[in-house]
Amino acid sequence: MGNIKFVKENKEVVAADGANLRLKAIQNGIDIYTFIGKMTNCGGNGQCGTCIVEIVEGLENLSPRTEVENRKFKKKPENYRLACQTLVNGSVSVVTKP
After folding, report:
1. Sign of CA dihedral 27, 73, 10, 88
2. Which DSSP state fits 62?
3. Chain segment 9-66, per-residue pLDDT in tens
4. How far apart are CA 21 and CA 80, in angstroms?
5. Alpha helices in 1-98 (DSSP H)
6. What's the DSSP call for residue 18?
7. Which of 2, 49, 77, 83 could disulfide-link to 22, CB 3.0 to 4.6 Å?
8. How much is the pLDDT for 43?
9. For residue 32, with 0-12 CB atoms within 10 Å meaning exposed, 13-18 middle and 19 or more buried, which class applies?
């Protein structure tokens, strides 16, 4: 078990090990999409790249980047993740819409 702290929203939620970051955000009323992303997101399949988040603490408590993320984030810092591709295995702090 771990806590996910959503920094901009000042909200903290509890997550079981292996919980999907995108689903936990949606279940707890956290808006991870920009205006365009709300209309164009792929529903969590890792295809659109609209659920980008920045991990500010606890990067080591997440699943490794997927090949999809590696392709989409070639020029982004290592702490940028697609929420739909990220599994939480401990406490993390997340900035939505970086």
Report:
1. positive
2. B
3. 999 999 999 999 999 999 999 999 988 888 888 888 888 989 999 999 999 999 999 9
4. 13
5. 21-27, 35-40, 67-72
6. T
7. 83
8. 87
9. buried
Look up tokens 């164009």; give the residue.
40
Is residue 22 a contact partner of residue 46, using CB atoms and an 8 Å limit? no
Hey, how many other C-beta atoms are within 10 angstroms of the C-beta on 62?
20
Could you tell me how far CA 43 lies from the centroid of its own chain?
A: 13
Q: Are strands 52-57 and 2-6 parallel, antiparallel or unpaired?
A: unpaired
Choose among 41, 55, 92, 36: nearest CA to 65: 55
Check if the beta carbon of residue 82 is closer than 8 Å to that of residue 47.
no
